[in-house]
């Protein structure tokens, strides 16, 4: 969920395992910062805490993968956030090997997001938008986790501990999957 530590753990995975990190959120924010017409539309959507259209997200991810075609592999952070995204990604872009699910309470996630919001400058790190993001996660993203769990592709990580403790679990999970 939002504030579960995905981005932090992804940085460490990339450093230790040499994968290319693609964050749907970073790709979206980069597009917003570009000042393009699409970026301006995305900014409005993100400020409301809503999800961006799947066509745009898939296009951004596909472009990023194409631009890094020689990569050892891809670590896609914050995607899919709803079931159709996962289905279409696997059909139109690439198969998913497995999913790391960083499980942590909403109270801890909110505390982390508000702290990050003090310095991040992110338009979606405020209390009202955080509540909306939690609701979106519960309604739309939890079914994605269940979909991949039924395919035995979910590796659940207890993300409530320290960065190092969580990464210890991540390393075990990755190594058990052959990385």
From TrEMBL:
Q: What is its main location?
A: cytoplasm
Q: Could you tell me where this protein is found in the cell?
A: Cytoplasm
The protein's matches in Pfam families, at most eight in alphabetical order, are given as: ADK
One GO CC term of this entry?
Answer: cytoplasm
Ordered alphabetically, the record's keywords are: ATP-binding, Cytoplasm, Kinase, Nucleotide-binding, Transferase
Subunit: Monomer.
Q: What does this protein do?
A: Catalyzes the reversible transfer of the terminal phosphate group between ATP and AMP. Plays an important role in cellular energy homeostasis and in adenine nucleotide metabolism.
Q: What is this protein called?
A: adenylate kinase
User: What organism is listed for this UniProt entry?
Assistant: Macrostomum lignano
């Amino acid at each position: 969920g939002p504030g579960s530590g995905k981005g932090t753990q992804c940085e460490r995975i990339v450093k230790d395992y040499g994968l290319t990190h693609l964050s749907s959120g970073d790709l979206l924010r980069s597009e917003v910062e570009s000042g393009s017409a699409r970026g301006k539309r995305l900014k409005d959507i993100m400020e409301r805490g809503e999800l961006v259209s799947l066509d745009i997200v898939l296009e951004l991810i596909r472009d990023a993968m194409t631009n890094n075609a020689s990569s050892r592999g891809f670590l896609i952070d914050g995607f899919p956030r709803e079931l159709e995204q996962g289905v279409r990604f696997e059909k139109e872009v690439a198969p998913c090997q497995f999913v790391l699910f960083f499980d942590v309470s909403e109270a801890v996630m909110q505390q982390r997001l508000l702290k990050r919001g003090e310095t991040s400058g992110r338009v979606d790190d405020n209390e009202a938008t955080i509540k909306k993001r939690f609701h979106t996660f519960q309604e739309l993203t939890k079914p994605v986790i269940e979909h991949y769990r039924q395919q035995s592709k979910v590796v659940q990580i207890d993300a409530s501990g320290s960065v190092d403790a969580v990464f210890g679990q991540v390393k075990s999970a990755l190594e058990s999957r052959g990385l």
